[in-house]
Amino acid sequence: xxxxxxxxxxxxxxxxxxxxxxxxxxxxxxxxxxxxxxxxxxxxxxxxxxxxxxxxxxxxxxxxxxxxxxxxxxxxxxxxxxxxxxxxxxxxxxxxxxxxxxxxxxxxxxxxxxxxxxxxxxxxxxxxxxxxxxxxxxxxxxxxxxxxxxxxxxxxxxxxxxxxxxxxxxxxxxxxxxxxxxxxxxxxxxxxxxxxxxxxxxxxxxxxxxxxxxxxxxxxxxxxxxxxxxxxxxxxxxxxxxxxxxxxxxxxxxxxxxxxxxxxxxxxxxxxxxxxxxxxxxxxxxxxxxxxxxxxxxxxxxxxxxxxxxxxxxxxxxx
Length: 319
What we know:
- The protein is an alpha/beta fold.
- The chain has 10 helices and 15 strands.
- It has helices at residues 2-13, 35-45, 63-66, 72-81, 116-125, 145-152, 191-198, 234-243, 273-289, 305-318; strands at 18-20, 27-31, 55-56, 67-68, 86-92, 107-111, 129-130, 158-159, 172-175, 182-185, 203-204, 225-228, 248-251, 265-266, 294-297.
- The radius of gyration is 19 Å and the shape is globular.
């Protein structure tokens, strides 16, 4: 594995792209200080140039190296939540993070991932690594190295395999550049945790202008059509779709007590909201592997943390 990390570092320094694991999803990485490498990252991913990507670093102390005028809220959140699934939007240092990373914005999202292989790579590289999820733009994010290889093929030099991602959905993004901190994307860290750390309320701003990765109305989409349904209505909706000749699947929590028709494919049921987040992308990919036409999804209970993150991703997939 040490040899693999060394090859990945060499590739980054040569302006090549690498795939690496994090606790959230697999990332497609490029040197954040190399404009040409970042341009290639956008081209390979098929990402619009105005859609920013997150910069990953090895330790919280690097926040001050890549950003300027870092506020107290950012330092407090970094100490409390890093390494972990939290991204902080701060004012970028143009000497360390090129404008191509941020879609020309003067701010940049930075995080320290909680995965030993990612940290080994970032520590050995020494600088920031710009990395969106390692899939083609708008598709289902990868939570295994096999997913990333299937999506990107020979467009990357090195793929580091760190097993299945523990969290399974992307990081929470908090913009700390304004008067009031704003959550731009819900994810692995709950709103309640953010507010507890900073000691005050923050606002939720997860739609509108593309200010953060993964916040387009339509995103995380499999080929199968995704519908959000209530548990009580699953059987009737599944029966109607199956009767119309559609191949139908259902994804729901264990406690949903489903009574769907026999012809319907029931994907492995998550135990709770945390497990739902962990398996969500794998189940969306499974829907395509099974050539389903429609996937009916019953959301987990809750309005914060993993439940909110799952609901956000499913609704964007269904848009």
